[in-house]
Amino acid sequence: MMMVVGGIDAGGTATKCLLLDGAGNTLFAHQGQPANYQVGPDEAAKAIKATLAAAMAGAGIDRVELLGVGLAGAGRKPELERMKACLGTLEGVNRYALTDDGEIAVLGAHRGQPGVVLIAGTGSIAYGLRQDGTMIRNGGWGAILGDEGSGYWIGLKAVQAVIRAEEGRGQQTVLSTAVCRGLGIDSLTALPALVYNSSLGRKEIAALVPTVVQTAADGDLVAAAIIDAAVHELALLVEMVQKLMDFPRAKVAVSGGLFANPLFMAAFTERLAEASGSTPVKPSHPPVVGAVIYGARQSGWPLPFLELKQ
Amino acid sequence: MMMVVGGIDAGGTATKCLLLDGAGNTLFAHQGQPANYQVGPDEAAKAIKATLAAAMAGAGIDRVELLGVGLAGAGRKPELERMKACLGTLEGVNRYALTDDGEIAVLGAHRGQPGVVLIAGTGSIAYGLRQDGTMIRNGGWGAILGDEGSGYWIGLKAVQAVIRAEEGRGQQTVLSTAVCRGLGIDSLTALPALVYNSSLGRKEIAALVPTVVQTAADGDLVAAAIIDAAVHELALLVEMVQKLMDFPRAKVAVSGGLFANPLFMAAFTERLAEASGSTPVKPSHPPVVGAVIYGARQSGWPLPFLELKQ
Predict the structure, then answer these.
(1) pLDDT digits 0-9 by tens, A211-245
(2) B40 touches chain A (CB under 8 A)
(3) Facing residue for A243 by CB, picked from B159, B168, B191
(4) Which domains does chain A possess?
(5) Which of A15, B51, B108, B299 could pair with A10 in a Cys bridge, judged by C-beta atoms 3.0 to 4.6 Å apart?
(6) CA–CA distance from B209 to each of A196, A294, B186, B218 (Å)?
């Protein structure tokens, strides 16, 4: 009988499931409904079970030897405990292990080796996996309390700078035209109604990033100051994690929408080199592979193939 | 038959109605349900009508010659037009006129004379009434887009500074203990759940202001920097309005919870003197009196008594 191992990356956008055979070959990959802890552990458990069942059906199997599950928003022990209670036993799964999305991200990014991952999309957070197996995190306090340097943070700073320029409290900036065009409004007076009734949400504000980056590159001082501040904040997250690492050669992988922008990636690369002498790399594997590694490790399974295959 | 004039200050906390006789004597004052435009113009109209009816019953009258109404959150023309449509005719009122809360605040604060009002509580905004009758406003973009220097802004900066100190990204500060005690939490890890499920709202965060002010006064550099930044932002709002005034001797009145704190008031007074050479004064009359003045002016009624009585 073929041995099957699996991983689940349960996130706010989708729940991804990957099933591999014992040699590391993909049997089936499936993407199901989102399953963030914040939306409720019962809903999350339902989405995880449905995604797993669909993947197993797709692969034509009825048994998984071991499964690793990483869940967004379940970073602390009480949340993991509650989530385990909601998940209960998983039908057809011999052994499974649950952790948060940070751990599977860092395990995937560095193929199980100690390392650092900086994730910067709408939000921002850095994780480190130490050689002794413990995790470190810095940042990621959400849109109100933190997420400094994130896409939402950059977009909001741009909108605020435009308002301040308009009202005479801030420097004039080319962002004024660019931001209004980007948000599809004729005048800033339309802004409060849009923002406070949530029809202009975090994603739409984060979508201003390419505009801000380009305006900065074109020489606008206000936009340049925002991008400088953002890369400073992101490099600081990495530095704080690096301080607590026990593996000096740990690599820094970067992931998330911000780094898809070449100008932003270049600015961050320069800042990180100044701050810590590191060079950012792309993750070796996605978090769902990290989930497989996590499940394997928790079960004492070596999974050597994952350290060999690139 | 006795002539009665009235004013309504319809705000997010309560709707206040004041009825005066033609000589300026108070007949009845009544406080009813809140009536912010943002909660819906129909609800606001209902609260305004109920408050007026209760005040008229209390005064034992069935007719008001003229009524001024100031409504929170109705600062722009389309909102005022929509609100007028919802209000329709007011039973027992011969003439009424509607404006926003800023105009009645400044009319009350300076007894109808040109002047500036800075309001800083949970939010922050400055208004100016020019001699030519036009209004100027600066700030007041709400908790996400603006409200710089407000109570919420100060409280949030304090919470963010505590998180950054905890994570090694910011300077150590005495605020760490003070803020946790102020919010009634043992550990910062409890914070995201409280903030993002809204059980810890803007008011609770703004309630940290006395703690931050006292910590600053006790010599904590992080707290002092937050208070310095706040008084700078508030003075900037005043300066921007003063720039556009056509009445050089216009006084600056300050109102709102922040100025009830003597240490904060002292810091702001010093900053405003440096910034614009002005000395802040307390409002001469509350906004509901400004509403009476507004109603009278719109009806061509001189109301000389309000300019005589202190």
Answers:
(1) 999 999 999 999 999 999 999 999 999 999 999 99
(2) no
(3) B168
(4) 4-111+284-308 (3.30.420.40), 143-281 (3.30.420.40)
(5) A15
(6) 24, 45, 19, 14
